[in-house]
Amino acid sequence: MAAAVAAMMEGQEISSGTVVSWVASGVVLWSTAFVLVRGLFPKRSYDFCNRAVSTMHAVAAVCLACLSVADWSRPVRPLAAASTPSQMKALAVTLSYMVYDAACCHLHGDVRLDNTVHHLVSIVGIGAGLAYRRCGTEMVASLMITEISSPLLHLREMLKEFGVRDTDLNLLVDVLFAVTFSAARMGFGPYLTYVTVTADNPLLIKAMATGLQLVSAYWFLRILRMVRYKLGKKKPLPPPGKAN
């Protein structure tokens, strides 16, 4: 799906109208993917189908972000520089997905404060980056950091719909998700936020980078509580006569 979006972007002059057409086409394509998934899995829930599309996007976003890195010895350089065409394409794909996902959640009635703030920060931040045509390095790095744990996030929820609960597989996926999320968003995330805020970037970009890191910190605390609960459930019961 993302390859189709990217293919439509190749060979076009990057004007404001072109960027808008990329995003609009992406929204249509992600929505079409959702309809197709619903048709393929009619017995699965709305949330399951949306998570399937979200997983497609996460894989595509990380791949496109990786392909846009010019020098892996200095992946977050240059800072506050003009965005390259490949960076703008990767950002446009994710912006179109964020618009789709925000609408999908709203139509499903899944309007939570943390999710709404996440969508708002992402849409405004990526939109500003595309409008300014700057900060491509920082924003593509942010894509990799935020999306690399998403497939595991969706897998842990999709397993529940298959009836797989409270098993070693669930625990493994939960722990892998927690480790990946923590390493990416709380390990590399603060550094990326720091270099974005201290570089000569527009104020709106700095504010959105800070907002995204705050949302990540909030989710990190929730994940810690989840892991403590899961590991607590796995503790063996004391043998008879030892309870006291």
Automatic annotation (TrEMBL):
It is found in: Membrane. Residues 43-232 form the TLC domain. The keyword Secreted does not apply. It comes from Eragrostis curvula (weeping love grass). It is a multi-pass membrane protein. Pfam families: TRAM_LAG1_CLN8. Keywords: Membrane, Transmembrane, Transmembrane helix. GO terms for cellular component: membrane. This is TLC domain-containing protein. It comes from the Eukaryota. The chain crosses the membrane at residues 20-41, 169-191, 203-221.
